[in-house]
Design goal:
Helix content is 40%, strand content 23%. It contains five helices and five strands, in the order ββαβαβααβα. Strand 2, helix 1 and strand 3 form a beta-alpha-beta unit. Helix 1 packs parallel to helix 2. The protein starts with 8 loop residues before the first strand and ends in a 10-residue tail after the last helix.
Amino acid sequence: MPLAQNPLSVEVELPRPDVALITVDGYLDVDTATEFQAHLANQLHHGRRHFLIDLSSVPFMDSSGMNIILRVYQETRKTEGSVHVISPTPAVRRILDLTGVSITVPISESVDEALARVDAEPDLPEEPSV
């Protein structure tokens, strides 16, 4: 059996202690989604609250990839975190728009724009002192 023609590459960088920048390269589909999910789960396990997912090198994404993005979005909401998609290719952007994912998960054109959105998000309310 030949190797996958479009293997997935996932790189993780930490621009801040609670922010994971996940750069994905390749087809994000049913055959590669498990690897993508493992990287996200590992970062959640290590306490990352904000996920910046760079899809600029993903020519194709199916419902498997979208479901993983939505799952990590749901997990980060429990910790007042966030998920931001960065620079999706036109084909991926179209899928995100058609399925409504782009309504739930903000799309930014750059890492700096996504980080600015993280900074603009309200922090947890402080407990009143007695």
